[in-house]
Amino acid sequence: MGESPDRIVSTLCHGCSYGGYNCGILAYVKHGKMVRVAGNPYNPLSEGRLCPKGQSAVQWVYNEQRLKYPLMRIGERGEEKFKRISWDEALNLTAEKLRAIKEAYGPEYIMLSKGQSSSWLGLHHFLWMRFLHGMGSANLGWWGPYVCYGPQLMYHKLVIGGPTYARADYDNADLIIEWFTGGGTGGASRGGVETTDTNMRSVPVKILDRLEKGARLVIINPQLIPIGANGRTYKWMPVRPGTDSALALAMINIIIKEGLYDKDFVGKWCDGFDKLIEHVRQYSPEEVEKITDIPAKDIRAVAREYAKTKRACIRVSESPEKRDLQGFAMAIPILIAITGHLDRPGGNVWFHPACRLGFDTLVKTVPEEMKARIFGGEKFYIKFRGRTTCDLTSTIEALITGRPYRPKAMLWFGTNFMGTGRNPALIAEAVKKLEFIVAVDVVPTQATRYADIILPAATRYECDGEPTIWQDHLAIANKVIEPLWEARNELEVTLDLACRLGMEKDFWNGDYNAMLEEFVGPSGVTIEELRASGPKGIYVPRTELMDKRERYEMVFENLPNKKVQLYNSTLEQNGYDAMPTYKGEPEDPVTTPHLLKEYPLIFTDEHSQYYNHHSWMRNVPWLRELRKDPYAKINPETARQYGIADGDWMEIESPHGMMKAVALFFAGLRPDTIMGQHGWWQGCTALGLPEYPGFNGGTNPNVLYNYEQRDPMTENLTKNTLVRIRKTTPPDGVAPLKEMM
Amino acid sequence: MARYGLVINVKRCIGCNSCTVACKNWHQIGAGVEGRRRVVDVTSGRYPRLSKWIFPISCMQCDEAPCITVCPTEATFRRKDGIVALDAAKCIGCKQCIDACPYHARYFDEKKGVADGCDLCSSRIDGGLQPYCVESCATRAMVFGDLSDPQSDASRLIRSEKGIQLSPQKGTKPKVYYIGILGSALEMSIV
Ligand code: SF4
Ligand code: SF4
Ligand code: SF4
Ligand code: SF4
């Protein structure tokens, strides 16, 4: 290149799931400006690859839509009148308010919520828990359990134990089943949802590498996902949305009936097999064909092939069913276990990092009576987690009804309640009842409009960021440039606030580096060493445990009899189903056929695509120009029946609400299904695209879903419904808050 | 002398457009213009029996390049290593190269008033690097190399995987080869 950079800084991407170990980035700086990025070839997770979000880092940083200064509300809540204030004013005011609420009511009246955008299981997560616990509250809540991947984990733990998910061991698999995943579209160079435990260095690359060696790819999804394009699909099963658990149960039935299960494993490591045999008998392939719309012979074929292939893995991402979460989330681990694919090469395997970074979150200092006051503390999954997080739907109800008590203050870190939460109008009504809201984010969101104090967060590229580990590799996100405008590192802000609240003793006396040192401590490496290691990072010694398989004694340790629970007595004792049952979603063609006359089409939404992350990043021009409009995919043959052309705005109406979306023709989608995507609201100033409303009549799929019927144990909210469609005009744009700009 | 070309392994492409954005990032090409790279999606057939092909397209680096022939100022020229490049300082914005290209591989940058297209990141190649999109592709779907060297990875792949060119009948002799794709799917992308 003509101009050479002044320096090249090794850092980590801020594109998806910030806080964990992200793709390695080399940022080029010229005259103090970040001018371009390149992939870091030394990063063992990404090996120099980047997805479009990573490639766009520069436009994410230098984005005119960012929050630039601390703001304070001056009008009524929701009236959207703000004025600029100084950081000092903002933090003093926040500290004063929090202290007053704690004294007047008690610490549990203060809540903290964070989104995936700001942190997921990294240092941010630890620090914010410590902050909340330091205040004496345990009311930590986030939307993940309602819209995301996470809640399945409880069921997996109940069935097969383990520290976390047993993940697809692509590297060794001969048969790969991608079950309602995006095939890595969420983070194409890294791969979907990630935590420090995963092997999903890169879902697409791993799958492709394996396919080149002759592995077969099965896709179970109402649409053909991109990884299945270009002749790569061995078998595509376009299951009717809302019925995946029936499909999984039929597979279990066939495998048992035909004696294809792993008899040694079942005999030695499983409890309740006899009861399972009885239970799944009702799921005959012929019956299940009627439910799932997958021919019985195909169900048989895939069941046989999965059971007979020694090295076969299943990846699930977000669960396709939410109301019927139990059915799906229990059937999958049972399927994996009885076929002997658990913790064996090429199957589903537990991946362990060489060590876990972190520090004490002070959870033990929260008195039991405070934990008992947690919102939704009586719910099974809250108890299952030891009452260390609250239930958000219970919180919304508490805000509306005042029962059992109404929280007073909330701190929001990188979370867009109205964009990602179901029933956005109810959420808006609820948060209006709060006395005090602080929202910290990189960009203004639908939610920040309701805040009292808005604080501009710096992007990862502007922070002396946190150390992270993936398997045995330690990396650190180094600062590329100084924070722009008045943005500040959220971690520093939290420390600062903790000190202003008199908690400096528990917060390293505000010493940022001391905090980093403690966090990285378990690795035996110091921050200085890590920073000095440059793009290469540091490898720590692998543990024996990491590379072992069939670690059943360890992973089943906390299960009754230390065995896989095919029949779950824990659940039975709590009054729940002991085995997975197909129940259907609140509205779908099988459960509510009477609705089909008025609402003839199925609606669901896909979690991820290449160009954004949840409700983030639609403001990045390079990304937005690749997909400009809030979209819903539709089969062209279906569209034609409604006189809808590719690119037309459609009105999509369910029994619960209406949204608008642009028709995106896709012949690889079931003709009875409309596939939307959540997170569309933001405008893109650089491309002249307006912000869209997030409530009824806007572009938010969350208004379409049933809010009342939930998975009984996790409170999961459905993402399936029935709709009717027609051609329409675009929604009116929403004017951005000019004070924020 | 080297004769540089590109092999695109369609079997590995997931249509993520990382290369599209990579190119804009590396070459600092703003949003709102087409850019040097695009990803096409050719879906044909009817549900559920359909074929879906996704793959990238950029300048084919033709050995017989009409863009060079029509350029009145020699702004578009061939380097010694065979790369078709463009000297923006000499470009008068007549758009003749854009019209002459059978692959719609060039675009016009309204702001700068010049034509532009992929030059295989020639400045990186001069520095001993790979083209940036090749290096950072989300799936390592592309291989860059010297086609005059029969032992280069690119040449080997073209031989062993029977690499094909897009619309060879146009007679421009592209140095970009595709593997793992049917010629018919490839053709459909430029109609
Ligand atoms: S997958 Fe994409 S967004 Fe996620 S960390 Fe990698 S480059 Fe960034
Ligand atoms: S970056 Fe690679 S995988 Fe993605 S579209 Fe380009 S060539 Fe295909
Ligand atoms: S593809 Fe078009 S621009 Fe590129 S060399 Fe051939 S004719 Fe010229
Ligand atoms: S080779 Fe270079 S110029 Fe050509 S498309 Fe790739 S990044 Fe752009």
Structure write-up:
The complex is a heterodimer of chains A (741) and B (191). Chain A is α/β, with parallel strands linked by helices. Chain A has 3 domains: 71-147 and 357-460 and 482-539, 3-Layer(aba) Sandwich (Rossmann fold); 166-349 and 552-573, Dimethylsulfoxide Reductase, domain 2 (3-Layer(aba) Sandwich), CATH 3.40.228.10; 593-740, Barwin-like endoglucanases, CATH 2.40.40.20. Chain A is 28% helix and 16% strand. Chain A has 26 helices and 27 strands. Chain A has a 7-stranded mixed beta sheet with strand order 5-4-17-16-15-6-7, with helices on one face. In chain A, strand 18 and strand 19 form a beta hairpin. The longest helix of chain A is centred in the first third of the chain and has 18 residues, at 87-104. The radius of gyration of chain A is 25 Å and the shape is globular. In chain A, 62% of the residues are buried. The model of chain A is unreliable at 191-201 (pLDDT under 50). Chain B is α+β, with helices and mostly antiparallel strands and 191 residues long. Chain B has a single domain, classed as Alpha-Beta Plaits (2-Layer Sandwich), CATH 3.30.70. Chain B is built from 7 helices and 9 strands. Chain B has helices at 18-27, 66-70, 96-100, 122-126, 132-136, 153-160, 183-188; strands spanning 4-9, 38-46, 49-57, 76-78, 84-86, 107-109, 114-116, 142-146, 176-179. In chain B, the strands form 4 sheets. Chain B has a 3-stranded mixed beta sheet. A two-stranded antiparallel ribbon of chain B has the order 2-3. Chain B is globular and about 50 Å long. The termini of chain B are far apart. The mean pLDDT of chain B is 95. Classes of the chains: A alpha/beta (741), B alpha+beta (191). At the A-B interface, strand 3, helix 1, helix 2, helix 7 and helix 25 of A face helix 1, strand 2, strand 3 and helix 5 of B. One iron/sulfur cluster binds next to helix 2 of chain B.
